[in-house]
Write a sequence for this structure.
């Protein structure tokens, strides 16, 4: 079975909101997560850079590593797999030689390739189909196989026998194509009669007499495409990653996807890897760990380059971080973060405007409440200019100037009502020096000057 994953894609928009204290209260500290995924396995990376066909030894190593063996266990695993292949190859040669007596017209290569498949199933290591049995160890330890693991074992056996063989991939399946008798022959490796599907296979008794036949219909292989030897090995990694994601182990799945991508070196490998990055980011977002989210995306972009899909994740990660943390940051560093993100393309113009309105509005209110209404007005005007004349900040600046004028008027009125006209006039003059042309203060000044000239 070739697994098809449904990635938990992130929502397209994250809305500005006050920070939540719930996770902190529960003992969760943002950013306290495991380290970024490891770099790719050096051997798999090296094999991914080489042209095919790979040597049998290289294929065996890649298959074992992809199946989960560690570097320390590789020598013993090589020996065990080599023994299995050796026994199967010997049995296949004997069976092909016997078959040549009854069907000599088939040719030795075709008979050997077909005998290899039957040898794996009939008394061989392939004992029972299990959809999740995707590694060589599933076969070697318990005889369980699926389309990927059985195709991989058949590929290795063909190479042991000196036959040219490659992998074929469809949207949800994998099988092999073997070059024998001068033609390419499909091999459905999950079925002992799956050699050259669509042809009849005669059953004979020990005297060579035909007693019946088997027929395996050709598969409806939609969008079949050659995946090569490395590509077939890589499907073990993608299936394992899918099984891990089913268990919620997204970071472990991502580590396998890193190896999958370097082994394939194609668009499909990159798409799969970025899908796993996305899904781990979705897990971070679900628990509001925007620090880990952004660290993962940053590390991924440094390794993989500026893929548009990673840029989209960077935008979502910063958006989420800012939405939940702006209220915790002081004005200057928060503003610098927003502007740097916009410069790098990690904030859309619309979201930049929203964040600027939020930052400048909050800071202006703070300054105004502290008593400096004109400084608050200046901040609101600065924000409005940066935000393209955003009307709410323009209106806020006007309101802050009115608050200043009201304060001056009230101070003037207090002194005027006490008959201290000269002091009242000085209050107004100072106010007009700071807010020239204010109509209300100019009207108050006229009243003060008239009071000063009255006899």
């Amino acid at each position: 079975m070739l697994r098809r994953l449904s990635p938990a894609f992130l929502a397209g928009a994250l809305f500005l909101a006050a920070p939540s204290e719930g996770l902190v209260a529960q003992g969760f500290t943002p950013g306290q997560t495991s380290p970024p995924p490891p770099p790719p396995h050096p051997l798999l990376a090296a094999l991914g850079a080489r042209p095919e066909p790979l040597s049998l030894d290289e294929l065996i190593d890649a298959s074992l590593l992809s199946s989960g063996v560690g570097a320390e266990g590789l020598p013993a695993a090589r020996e065990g797999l080599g023994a299995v292949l050796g026994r199967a190859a010997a049995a296949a040669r004997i069976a092909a030689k016997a078959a040549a007596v009854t069907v000599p017209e088939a040719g030795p290569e075709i008979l050997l390739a077909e005998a290899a498949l039957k040898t794996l199933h009939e008394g061989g290591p392939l004992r029972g189909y299990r959809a999740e049995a995707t590694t060589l160890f599933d076969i070697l330890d318990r005889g369980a196989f699926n389309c990927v693991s059985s195709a991989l074992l058949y590929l290795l056996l063909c190479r042991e026998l000196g036959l040219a063989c490659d992998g074929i991939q469809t949207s949800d399946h994998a099988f092999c194509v073997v070059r024998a008798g001068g033609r390419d022959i499909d091999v459905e490796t999950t079925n002992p009669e799956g050699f050259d599907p669509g042809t009849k296979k005669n059953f004979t008794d020990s005297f060579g007499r035909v007693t019946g036949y088997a027929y395996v219909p050709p598969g409806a292989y939609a969008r079949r495409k050659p995946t090569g030897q490395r590509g077939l090995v890589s499907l073990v990694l993608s299936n394992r990653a899918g099984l891990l994601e089913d268990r919620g182990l997204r970071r472990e799945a991502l580590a396998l996807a890193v190896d999958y991508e370097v082994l394939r070196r194609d668009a499909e490998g990159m798409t799969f890897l970025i899908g796993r990055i996305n899904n781990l980011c979705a897990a971070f977002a679900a628990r509001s760990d925007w620090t880990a989210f952004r660290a993962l995306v940053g590390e991924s972009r440094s390794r993989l380059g500026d893929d548009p899909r990673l840029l989209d994740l960077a935008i979502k990660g910063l958006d989420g971080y800012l939405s939940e943390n702006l209220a915790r940051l002081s004005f200057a560093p928060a503003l610098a973060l927003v502007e740097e993100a916009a410069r790098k393309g990690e904030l859309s113009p619309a979201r930049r405007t929203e964040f600027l309105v939020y930052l400048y509005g909050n800071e202006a209110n703070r300054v105004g409440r502290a008593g400096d209404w004109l400084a608050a007005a200046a901040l609101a005007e600065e924000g409005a200019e940066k935000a393209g004349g955003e009307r709410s900040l323009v209106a806020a600046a006007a309101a802050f100037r009115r608050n200043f004028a009201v304060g001056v008027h009230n101070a003037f009125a207090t002194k005027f009502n006490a008959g201290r006209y000269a002091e009242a006039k000085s209050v107004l003059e100072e106010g007009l020096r700071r807010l020239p042309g204010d109509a209300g203060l100019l009207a108050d000044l006229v009243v003060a000057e008239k009071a000063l000239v009255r006899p």
Q: What stands out?
A: The longest strand covers residues 174-180. Residues 36-229 form one domain. Strands lie at 128-129, 144-145, 164-169, 174-180, 183-187, 200-204, 210-215, 225-226. Confidence is low (pLDDT under 50) at residues 4-32, 203-216.
